[in-house]
Target: Geranylgeranyl diphosphate synthase type I
Amino acid sequence: MAHGSRLVDLVHERIEDFLVERSSILRSISPDLEPLDAFSRRFLSGGKRFRALFCYWGWEAVGARDFDPFAPEGGRDRFPVVSAAAALELFHAAALVHDDLIDNSDTRRGSPSAHRLFQSLHRDEGWAGSDADFGRAASILLGDLLLGWSDELLDEGLAALTDQRAARTARTEFMRMRTEVTAGQYLDILEERAWITKPDSEQRLRAERVIVYKAAKYSVESPLVIGAAIAGATQPQLDALRAFGLPLGIAYQLRDDLLGVYGDPQVTGKPSGDDLREGKRTMLIAIARERLAPGQRRLLDELLGDRTLEPEQITMLQRTISECGAVDEIELLIGANVTRASEALADAPISREARAELGSLAKAVTRRAS
Model:
């Protein structure tokens, strides 16, 4: 993944250059806006850049073979895809800021979440009113700012394309992704509250719907399609990348759901069993409810979403979910979706190198520990 690792560096540089330009606008308005600049940089400095990598390999897959990360700055061939990859990282950061607020999460990647950072700022400065209210309001605005900036960054890249059909296709996919993620996020918070009124027989299907629209499409499928569109992909190429990207995205999120319950806090940067305290109605929980005896199911329903759960209770729930076979079934689902993705990749009309690199990425996103 030599080109991919270089792409990560280029994306980081593109984000930094973009933030320098935007921070000058913030400073020209007021020095009081410095926290927006500082916190945006903080949330864009880390992460695995999976979405950027999928975007690049979507581009590479359909024949953009002249990509050279070390080409002179004057070369514009790389600019649209690097900008799109960077825009996806800004979009992801915006989604995380809002997601942490919705979930009332204290941490992100082992550090305070955005609303907690703003809450601490309020408290440290001795300002009037509620520090929690300020933290919530300010983090909404930070997420909105990052979301708007992702659009600007994408448009700067697409403006450099001579193929306007390719630019329109990429822009259309980005807008579709934005709508789907918002819809998926709503469905996620809906499930945490409305599950009690829905038939048990529907809960697996409803959990899968959240996986598809909140995570799978925007984590893998859309980045692939955006990158490929920028390279001028044909419809069969786009269809093949979708056929690969959607099941891989589902597998990616199923792994994430397991990590949300069983992940090592030292690796994930989140407390152990965090999804249990947040009351996430994931596929793991839907399957566990199908397998548990009525008494165990009632106990799971009673404890899930209790933010005061003690470590002993978390351990008990983890053991209960595992012993009923739900974890094993999730692993089987991950394997089945990876197989679907691999079969689609094998027949895809794309470059040989991209096929190999996408296969390696598929392993990386579904076998990860964080």
